[in-house]
Amino acid sequence: MPPPGRWRLRKGEKVSKPPAAAGGIRRAATGETAAHVTIDGHPVNLVHLPGLGADGREDAGARDGRPGPGPGAGGADRAPGDGRRTAPGGDRRSAAGDGWRGRLASVLEFARRQLDGESEVDQFGFDPEFNSRVLMPIARLLYQHWFGVQMRGLAHVPEAGPALVVANHSGTLPVDAVMLQAGLHDEHPTHRNLRLLGADLVYEIPLLAPLARKGGHTRASPADAHVLLRSGELVGVFPEGFKGVGKPFSDRYQLRRFGRGGFVATAIRARAPIIPCAIVGAEEIYPLIGNAKPVAELLRLPYFPITPLFPWLGPVGAVPLPSKWIIEFCPPVPTTGYPPGSENDPAVIADLSGRVRGTIQRKLDDLLSERGPAFG
């Protein structure tokens, strides 16, 4: 029999899980129960996510501040509840041996598991093995060889346990989110997986949606963010949203409004520290000089970018410029000292949101001065 908290399925069999696994938002207030779906049309083996019950509802442990039972998200590829990455696939691949035959056998076995629906994902669709073996190697090429990203302040990111990374957002396309995720995956002492909160638009794009979920992303829902944090995950959010990533090049590195401070309420509710993060380098990869609003409205996009190279050079214009990047984490801001109910106090939300925003803006100014020219 499968171990507790894990479901084993036959090919083609449907699974019962919360709507969040398909990118939906759980509606606990209305008593909505789990929906019967498959993830992106493929059967999978679900791994229990601490803080989320088998019926898709938040368990009592997560509600009262205790970590939920069961293995950590990602099953064999994760230490329980700490958001860390270990060798994907574990013993199944070490038995294959060393050398090219072992590597080939490992690749074939990985492909078989993916095709047969034997990959293990949590209730949000995160597949740690697919992320480590497919998505991160692609991101690593940009991180190491195209942008040459410098990542600093990793000592401020805890080795285990929940934390909310709050960063500036820019660059026309959200490449900064992927670089942040890749840096933590590769350079953090415990190789933490960053669970990014994304806009609804991401989950409406047929090819992008399944890749985002397999990479650990989920919708920017307060309910989902709370469950992830109470499960000990490292969660990432970009409060500027599309106003940040789609701002004109003339306004580069000038932070937009941090929404209504929802990230603060989420952190206080989960009693998780907030880690401000400044990202320099993304603004120059696609310098936004215009917005083709009629095209954006036709495609139902928040904006349609016009850069010095796109759309004039076609696919060549979509290649990001090789700017110099620095990503730095600032000292964490604790939230455990706030009394119960503070997450509903507008004054507390505004104050803490402003402090975090100010910290990031000052760090951006310092990093820009230190970096100098974006190219060369």
Give a quick summary of the entry.
The protein has 376 residues and is of the alpha/beta class.
Descriptive key words:
alpha/beta; Glycerol-3-phosphate (1)-acyltransferase; 32% helix; 13 strands; two-stranded antiparallel ribbon; 376 residues
Largest sheet: 7 strands, mixed
Contiguous low-pLDDT stretches (5 residues minimum) are 1-40, 42-46, 52-57, 60-96
Order of helices and strands: EEEHHHEHEEHEHEHEHHEEHEEH
Q: What is the distance, rounded to the nearest whole angstrom, between the alpha carbons of the first and last residues?
A: 59 Å
Tally of DSSP β-strands:
13
What is the general shape? globular
Gyration radius, rounded: 21 Å
Name of the CATH architecture: 3-Layer(aba) Sandwich
Class by alpha and beta content: alpha/beta
CATH topology: Glycerol-3-phosphate (1)-acyltransferase
Mean pLDDT: 80
Helix fraction?
A: 25-40%
Strand order of the largest sheet: 5-13-10-6-9-7-8
**Count of helical stretches:** 11
Describe the fold and architecture.
- The chain has 376 residues and is α/β, with parallel strands linked by helices.
- The longest helix is centred in the C-terminal third of the chain and has 26 residues, at 346-371.
- The protein has helices at 60-63, 91-94, 99-115, 128-146, 175-187, 208-214, 222-230, 242-245, 262-270, 293-299, 346-371, and strands at 15-17, 35-37, 45-46, 120-121, 150-152, 163-167, 194-198, 218-219, 234-237, 274-280, 290-291, 305-306, 326-329.
- The chain has one domain (15-285, 320-371): Glycerol-3-phosphate (1)-acyltransferase (3-Layer(aba) Sandwich).
- 44% of the residues are buried.
- Helix content is 32%, strand content 12%.
